[in-house]
Amino acid sequence: MSLQYIIDAYNLVNHPAFKPAAKRVLNIQQALVDFIRLNRLTGSKKNQLVLVFDGYPPPAEEIPDQNGLLCVFSRSQEADELIKRMIEDSAAPKNIIVVSDDKEVRLSSRFLQAQICGVEEFICGKKNSRMAINAKLAADDFKLGYAKMQKINAELKKKWLE
């Protein structure tokens, strides 16, 4: 059973892991495909990849055309609506993994019985993504407010200066 990854391309293009690669290329679609394929983000080569872009295709750029890959442009509608319609038209929505950080896309995808995945999780993997989130939460725990700092300073002054 092969999976179909439908990726909200705008979310992936703006992720910090991809931005350095995006700055050096003229064809963002090909750079995105190369990034996904080189990092093996979709797993098996049998899994299909659909990149959904907002707007119209750039007139001067060649759109990547490979087996198991489809680059789709939403044209006059929003990419979010196109993703939703693709899931609705699918015979097996449970075999679709939608990669997006857009809350509305994630909710509608889940409602239509597709699997969902955030961009961070897609790029870093589930384990690494959770570790990064936990590290950020732990760092937030150590941030002190002004009142707390004043209290700590007062206690230290008592111990050290008396």
Largest beta-sheet details:
5 strands, parallel
Number of strands: 5
CATH fold description: Rossmann fold
Q: How big a fraction of the residues is strand?
A: 5-15%
Q: Separation of termini?
A: 73 Å
The CATH architecture = 3-Layer(aba) Sandwich
* SSE string: EHHHEEHEHEHHH
How would you sum up the global shape? elongated
SS summary, helix count: 8
CATH class: Alpha Beta
Describe the structure.
With 162 residues, the protein is of the alpha/beta class. It has one domain (4-124): 5'-nuclease (Rossmann fold, 3-Layer(aba) Sandwich), CATH 3.40.50.1010. Helices cover 49% and strands 14% of the residues. It is built from eight helices and five strands, in the order βαααββαβαβααα. It has a five-stranded parallel sheet with strand order 3-2-1-4-5. α4 packs parallel to α5. The termini are far apart.
List the helices and strands and how they pair.
Layout: E1 4-8, H1 9-13, H2 19-23, H3 28-38, E2 48-53, E3 69-73, H4 79-89, E4 96-99, H5 103-111, E5 115-117, H6 119-124, H7 126-141, H8 146-161
Parallel strand pairs: 1-2, 1-4, 2-3, 4-5
Quick synopsis:
It contains eight helices and five strands.
Descriptors for this entry?
five-stranded parallel β-sheet; single chain; 14% strand; alpha/beta; Rossmann fold; 162 residues; 8 helices
